[in-house]
User: What shape does this take?
Amino acid sequence: MSEKETGFTAMAGARAGGEIPEIGVGMLGYAFMGKAHTNAFKKIPYMMYPPPAIPRLVAICGRNEEAVAEAARRYGYARYYTDWHKMLEDEEVQLFDNGGPNDTHAEPSILAAQAGKHVLCEKPLARSAAEAKEMLDAVQKAGVKHMVAFNYRFVPAVRQIRNLIDSGALGQIYHFRAVYLQEWIMPHYGTPKIWRLDKKVAGSGALGDLGAHIIDLAHFLVGGIKSVAAMTRTFIEERPLPDGSGVGKVDVDDAFVAAIEFENGAIGTLESTRFAAGRKNYNCFEINAEKGSIRFNLERMNELEVFWVGEEPKETQGFHDALITESYHPWWENWWPHGHIIGWEHTFVHEITHFLDCIVNDKDVAPYGATFEDGYRAAVICDAILESAEARKQVDIKY
Assistant: This one.
């Protein structure tokens, strides 16, 4: 079974009974993404067996000392810091995992690279394309491995789609349409003006939070984007401040829609919102191509809807469900018997295993992992969508 088919090749030395190296991990952030990434680090040694490396939880960092100390105890990090500068001085930290808010992506990641540490950074890579370019330049100059946590590349069904495209099974692609819909800041939730609704911290709203994912999937599956024509909307322009001291202006988008043109001639649409009542984590896309169509829905992430042109018998031709849980599907040899589904958390296990493999065996993170170059390209598209919406015109993409 090839690496392309499985998504992972264990370290040759480990297969031969050699010693598996350790990689010291320093984590910035202990909340949502800190939990997700740490869960993956802890599962890798015994589930992705034999692993390319054993993640060693050296340090975790956060601003609230009581909370980060509790996180260190809970997750099993050897020590904690309240100053990320100090953590980056820790010689045992070899891999810097940046799961902080968007305004803490650039400076810590750049300094980590300059200190010779490999960098895994949550998405969106940065608040703007200019900031993302600084990060890309830094990791390239330092010669360290770098990856953006676009974890949906590591859903087995999504990788299976990429494999089908690479094999020529779909033929020429005509359309890519994607939506990423959530509901969690609708009025009935009473969400205050958290950092995700502050442009200075987040850079953008639904666009960077959700849209960046489907932009990256468009790049990963179809190719470069040539132009965009977009519209954005902020539905609630003022929200109460988290400390109860008053109200604050919401200066990011609640939703966006965009028509896109690909470099290879395909066309598509992108839409993200956090105002879609009933949609919890609805990342859904469809590809229409010369030889068939494929539809993926993250809320049913172990399945694909597939239609093949000319399929026989014609009397039963139509879309059908395919369960992507066979042992020959990507990563499944590491999990359960067919039909025993996996979940969202497992995407991080696959993603970080890939990154560790690239570090210890000096492999390229691309094309299957998202590099900082991919993060920069996504940031350019995000900026172009905002520019198009403001100017009310189509914008050509320039890197």
Q: What stands out?
A: The chain has a mean pLDDT of 95. The chain is about 35% helix and 25% strand. The CA atoms of residues 185 and 191 lie 6 Å apart. The longest strand covers residues 173-181.
